[in-house]
Design a protein that fits this description.
The protein is mostly helical. The chain folds into 2 domains: about 80 residues, Arc Repressor Mutant, subunit A (Orthogonal Bundle); about 140 residues, Up-down Bundle (Four Helix Bundle (Hemerythrin (Met), subunit A)). It has 11 helices and 5 strands, in the order βαβαβααββααααααα. The chain has a 3-stranded antiparallel beta sheet with strand order 3-5-4. The protein has a two-stranded antiparallel ribbon with strand order 1-2. α2 packs across α4, α5 runs antiparallel to α10 and α9 runs antiparallel to α10.
Length: about 240
Amino acid sequence: MARQAVRSTPAPAEHAATEDLPAYRTKAEVATDVVRRAILSGDLTPGELLTVVSLAERFDLTHMPLREALSHLAAEGLVEIEPHQSARVVRLSHERMKEEYFVRAIVEAAAAAQATKKLDDAAFDALEDLLHRMDRARDARRTADFWALTKRFHERIYAAAPSRLLREEVDRVRVRTLRYLPAFERDHDLVAAAQREHWEIFHALRGGDPAKVERLVRAHVATVASAVHIPPDMSAAHP
């Protein structure tokens, strides 16, 4: 039986710029998005046990889409499947963070290098416009806006990589590391450093130098990873 499509709820204005959701999504896609957001925002905490029943009551969703959602989120590395239609939010740890950012540096650098020769004038215009908007967000200390625009900047670059498999890997690892955003999103020194590196990446892309782009993206991911601090209560939650 075909899965029923449902209308998605429009994103709030402050988030609309960061998401391009389709007008209609399946119930499983909606459930996946709802639970994913709760994990990334910290509403569902590291180590927390998630059951289909408890999630259905909490988010007013039905059981079958939630079962599919937990499978999708397990594939994304956000939960670990447990017996009896349940899962557990993956715990945060310094070692896990290092591993995830290590992988992220590899796949993002490769995708950006691939994209170097594929970006056209329209793409460069769009990237430059995003960079100027990021400059304004940095100067106004609007860190949430800055990181939302940063997400779009990187996604625009990686979308130009010709390898679909590589693009999919980038998406997966970026979702996992979004969990660490609260650990550094208000770090204004990091915002300033990251923005300098964004401009360097942009100029290397425009200069058509894949090796330089790859090197800069690796360094940029390392800059962000170095700012992550995992509070003890996040790594030891729900023993």
